[in-house]
Amino acid sequence: MKFILSALALAAAPAFATTLAAVGQPAPAFSVTDTAGKAVSLSDFKGKTVVLEWVNPGCPYVRKHYESANMQATQKGATGNGVVWLAVNSTHSGASEYKNPSDMAAWMRQHQASATHTLMDGDGKVGKAYGARTTPHLYVIDAKGTLVYAGGIDDKPSANPADVKTARNYVNAALADVAAGKPVAQAVTRPYGCSVKYSDG
What we know:
This protein is α/β, with parallel strands linked by helices and 201 residues long. It has 6 helices and 9 strands; from the N terminus they run H-E-E-E-H-H-E-H-E-H-E-E-E-H-E.
């Protein structure tokens, strides 16, 4: 009986659970369309540092970082140093917070975001491959294609924009370590925010 229950538990586990991204390992490959309908693959940026940012405009934690311009400043600092920044929206189309590609693009423009591309991951395949749990949830991939950081944008897990001023920005710190050719000092931190609105399928 114990064996049967164990087998059932394994069968019920999500298919992506065995392929979750892990810091220190190659970042999972993906290809998905951006808000303009253009196919974007991780392999397009071989040899470059890449940041993945999970975003959902309906989340107050996301709005904290965009309305305070903290996320945009982090994006701009990164892309100004040659880093590729990919914002990823894994909200499924049946969710009340879903924005279609044109509305998502308009929201990013309205907030003067500096993401290289905004990706539409409506089926959640990219988010599930990386184990993205919250919006925001941030990942850094180095020029060798290795995942070197996963976690929160900073150390102030609140939705209060005022907390940005005293927060330690983990993404900036990770990118500085990568640029200096050093191991990322805090390679894994706890992400915080709203749950990613994946489809049930």
